[in-house]
Design a protein that fits this description.
147 residues; mainly alpha; 92% helix
């Protein structure tokens, strides 16, 4: 098998025009693809920026809320410490007054017990004196009745 030579019937100018036309078409297609790619990239960038801005706003809002809560907590803790200190001072004063009242009551009770001991010590001599008087009276009445 022998190969026969190929003959080209087109002129070089026509071939170059076709190549140039094809290159123009490819260039246009590449430009369109590049433009579509740029548009999609721009859209993605806008979406990303929007979402990032939304997340940043949410984060800032939550951070602000946490900061407010922390400030309120610190203020509340200060108030609580003040109230505890005042309560301690009030309780100490109340306890001192209660101790004074207890001491006064104790002194009164000690005095009353001492008075009762004094009365008790007087009761025995009174009983002895009454018993002696009765016995004396009885002995005086009895000899007269037998005699």
């Amino acid at each position: 098998m022998s190969e026969s030579p190929i003959t080209v019937t087109y002129s070089l100018e026509e071939i170059l025009k076709k190549i140039d036309g094809n290159l123009d078409k490819l260039d246009t297609k590449l430009d369109n693809i590049e433009q579509k790619f740029d548009n999609k990239l721009d859209n993605l960038e806008k979406k990303f920026d929007t979402k990032f801005d939304d997340l940043e706003k949410k984060f800032d809002a939550k951070f602000d809320k946490i900061e407010v809560r922390l400030t309120n907590l610190e203020v509340g803790q200060t108030k609580l410490n003040t109230e505890v200190q005042n309560l301690k001072e009030t309780d100490i004063l109340n306890l001192r007054e209660d101790i004074k009242d207890i001491k006064t009551t104790q002194n009164s009770l000690v005095q009353e017990v001492a008075d009762l001991k004094g009365v008790k010590s007087l009761i025995i001599p009174i009983v002895v004196a009454v018993a002696t008087a009765l016995l004396t009276l009885l002995f005086r009445i009895l000899p007269n009745s037998f005699g």
